[in-house]
């Protein structure tokens, strides 16, 4: 889904949609972590990119993958935040919550992808992959 211009309300909207989708797909065990990851990545778009992004959530029995595409050519970088810094910890925390994290550079931006493995045996849907571009959020 193309969110258009990201606003301060967008992360909360994304969290709510992700909650509904993960519950429907039987992945409630991933809810807190993937909502946190989505919040951090979309907030990074708001703070460091052009403010426009596309978010896609895909899930199967192994877990869920979140893709956040923005239109800034800048590459995210981990920082060493001090005890008094108010920011600079988000990417480290996203990496800690994710089974894998990657960046695909594009000519006009990038896609950051985070995979979170499902706890336990996974949902009853078997190997069927379910995916939704979250484009209705923020419009």
Distance between the termini: 10 Å
Average pLDDT, all residues: 79
Report the top-level CATH class.
Alpha Beta
Which blocks of ≥5 consecutive residues have pLDDT under 50? 122-129, 132-139
- Helix count? 3
Q: Cα-atom Rg, whole angstroms? A: 15 Å
Please give the domain count: 1
Which fold name is given in CATH as the topology? Heat Shock Protein 90
Order of helices and strands: EHHEEHEEE
Secondary structure class reads alpha+beta
Kindly report the name of the CATH homologous superfamily: Histidine kinase-like ATPase, C-terminal domain
Describe the structure.
Helices cover 29% and strands 29% of the residues. The protein has three helices and six strands; from the N terminus they run E-H-H-E-E-H-E-E-E. Strands 1, 2, 3, 4, 5 and 6 form a six-stranded antiparallel β-sheet that branches. A hairpin with a 2-residue loop joins strand 4 and strand 5. Helix 1 (10-24) runs antiparallel to helix 2 (31-48) and helix 2 (31-48) packs antiparallel against helix 3 (90-97). It is globular.
Outline:
29% of the residues lie in helices and 29% in strands. It is of the alpha+beta class and 139 residues long.
């Amino acid at each position: 889904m193309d969110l258009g211009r990201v606003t301060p309300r967008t992360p909360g909207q994304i969290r709510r949609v992700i909650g509904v989708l993960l519950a429907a797909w039987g992945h409630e065990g991933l809810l807190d972590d993937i909502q946190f990851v989505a919040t951090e990545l979309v907030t990074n778009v708001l703070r460091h990119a052009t403010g426009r992004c596309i978010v896609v959530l895909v899930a199967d029995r192994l877990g869920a993958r979140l893709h956040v595409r923005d239109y800034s050519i800048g590459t995210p970088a981990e920082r060493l935040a001090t005890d008094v810094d108010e920011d600079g910890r988000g990417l480290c925390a996203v990496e800690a919550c994710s089974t894998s994290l990657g960046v695909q550079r594009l000519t006009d931006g990038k896609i950051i992808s985070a995979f979170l493995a499902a706890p336990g045996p996974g949902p009853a849907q078997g190997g069927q992959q379910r995916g939704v571009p979250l484009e209705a959020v923020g419009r």
